[in-house]
Amino acid sequence: MTNHGITYTGLDALLTPENSVLLLIDHQGAQFAGMGSTDTNLVVNNVTALAKGAKLFDVPTVLTTVVEDRGGRIIRQLQEVFPEQTPIDRTTINTWEDQRVVDAVAATGRRDLVIAGLWTDICLAWPAIHALADGYRVFAVTDASGATTTEAHERGIQRMIQAGVIPTCAGTVISEWQRDWAREETVPGITDIMLQHGGSFGTSLAWELQLLGLDKG
């Protein structure tokens, strides 16, 4: 495992919008059709929240598909967050072996690489491990990813952790980007994300806003 001086503890271990770049891999119809590790709706919900968080905090985002003609387009929920972006369509199973993707990430100048993808053990794990060797600090968003089976999902996560990838969840990433509620300019946006995608927390938040007289619905 190559460390490259990566920090895993202290304040510098947390993500910031200024240092992050998001890579979303193969959230396509064919990939979802073969996913059996978790509920499809949960992954769609979480990866959409993650994408909206990236847009809110101006985190550069790279979208990619594999053999789109057969595997299908990227799901509409993601494309609608970034309507101006055409996903990079690859033939390589390992996203990090497509130089266009590597160059797109490198062009951002960011060194904290946040990745989610289908499937966890292949399309997420391989580029995550590969990017570590290029000096990136890599975060794998496991609840915005999935695999053919629970076994494959878990083994993919274990393999990444053994290599030095940092596992995390979509809500955790967004919270790290926010970090301080005194950063008021992004509070309305993050509130909307939580209301739409936060599950039981979102419904509780809606109730709280109603009780405070802040619910405009």
TrEMBL record:
A molecular-function term among this protein's GO annotations: hydrolase activity
Protein name: Hydrolase
Sequence ranges assigned to domain Isochorismatase-like in this UniProt record: 20-169
Phylogenetic classification of the source organism: Bacteria, Bacillati, Actinomycetota, Actinomycetes, Kitasatosporales
A Pfam family per the record: Isochorismatase
Keywords recorded for this protein, A-Z: Hydrolase
